[in-house]
Amino acid sequence: SSGINAEYGEADAQTRTNKEFFADEAHRERYEGYRAGQYVRVTISEMPCEMVELLDPHYPLVVGGVTSLEHQMGLLQTRTKRHRWYPKILKNQDPIVVSLGWRRFQTRPVYSIQDHNMRQRMLKYTPEHMHCHATFYGPLAPPNTTFIATQGATDKKTSSFRIVATGVILGLDKTIDVVKKLKLTGTPYKIFKNTAFLKGMFSSILEVSKFEGAMIKTVSGIRGQVKRALSAPPGAFRASFEDKIQISDIVFLRCWVSVDIPKFYTPVINLLSPDKTWSGMRTVAELRREKGEAIPVKQDSLYKEIERRQKVFKPLVVSKSLQKNLPFKTKPKVEKKRKKQLYVTKRAVVSEPGERRLTTLMQQLLTAQKESDKKKYEKKNKEKEKYLSEQAKINAKRGEKAKERRKIFYQKNAKKDQAGED
After folding, report:
1. Which residues share a beta bridge with 216?
2. For strand 96-100 and strand 103-107, is the pairing parallel, antiparallel, or unpaired?
3. What is the DSSP letter of 203?
4. pLDDT in tens, 386-400
5. What are 14-72's pLDDT values in tens digits?
6. Which helix (H) or strand (E) holds 31?
7. pLDDT digit string (tens) for 215-224?
8. 56: number of CA atoms within 13 Å, CB side?
9. Distance from C-alpha of 49 to C-alpha of 259, rounded to nearest angstrom
10. Measured between alpha carbons, how far is 178 from 77 in angstroms, rounded to an integer?
C-alpha cells in the first residue's frame, strides 16, 4: 500500500507541475496546438487579390492541408464507372471536372479497358454498365482515394443528374501505356519471287524503321514481314512474303500504337468571380451546339445496302468436231425445238375394253389403300391422345404426393429446429 501511495503522490505532483506550466496559453498552444472551438487567425501567402476583393462572409470556406505527395503533378490511373443516373455516355478526352480530395480541377481523361494480356486498350466511349480505366493528368493522390466527376463546375442550366462518373485511384505508375488499333494499307509496285517493294503505307524512312519486323498480310491471305526502307520513293520499303503476290494485291499492317495522355489541368476558381461561376473548357458537342454546326458525316463510313447482281452463266456449247470424238453416253442429247408437233405426240390414244377395265381396277385399288391408311392414321392419333391424357393424370397425382411429402418433411424439420433453440 505504501508503494501505491507513493505512485499516486508522484502523479499528483506531475499534474500540478503541468497545470502550472500550461497556465500560460502560449505554452499550451506551442506544445498541444489549438484546441477545438478556439478562434484562430490564418495567414495565407500568395493569395490572389480577387479572393480578398470578392470575399463573401455568407459563403463558408473550409481550410485544409495536403501532403507533400499531393503537391506533385503526374498521371493518375483510376477505375471509373459512369453513374447509372446520368443519361449519356462519356466520350474519350472530353473535359470533366474531378473532385479529388481537397481539389476540384478540370482534366481530359483517356478511357481504356484491360485485355486478358494486360494491354490497356483505348475506348472511344465509356461502357454502359461496366467499369473501365480512366487515365488523366492532375495532382497525385494516394491509392484507394475516391473521387466524383461532373461535366461542369457551376452549370445551373442542366436539368439532368449532374454527377457523370465515380471512381477510385488505382496507382501512380508513370509507365502507363494506353494503346489503340492502327490499320495501314499499301500496294506493291515491283514484285520479285517472294520479295516485293511496297509504297503508300508509310510517309518517311523514319516511320518504316519503327515498324521493321512487323507482320503484314495481303487480302488473299499471304503473310509477310517488313524488312528494310528504300531510299525512293519516300515511305517505300522491301518486304518478304511466303508466296509470290500479285500487283493488284492490297497489303495490310495491323498494329497497336501508343496514345498520348493530354497533360491538361485547370483548377476550378469560381470564388474569384463576382457571381461565383466558372466556365472551363467546353466539349465538342457544346461548341457545335453554340455555333449551330451539324455533326460531320463521312460518306465512306456509312453502312450501305449491298446490291449483288445475279450472275447469268452462258450455256455450255460443245463444238461439233469435239462431239464427233466423244463417246455416245457423253454426247449432248438435246433435241431442237420443233415448230410442228409430231404425229406421235398429237395422236389420240384409244384403249381397248380390257385395258380400260385394268385401269379402272388399279384406280379403285389405290383409292381403297389410301382410305385404309387414313383410318389407321386417325386410330393411331386417338390412341396417342388417350395415352397422353392418362400420363398427365398420373403425373398430377405424383406431384400432389410429392408436395405432401415435402410439406411433412419441412414441418418435422421446423419442429426439430424449435426444440434445438429451446
Report:
1. 224
2. antiparallel
3. S
4. 999 999 999 999 999
5. 888 888 877 777 777 777 778 777 888 888 888 888 888 888 888 888 888 888 888 88
6. helix 25-31
7. 999 998 999 9
8. 10
9. 40
10. 11
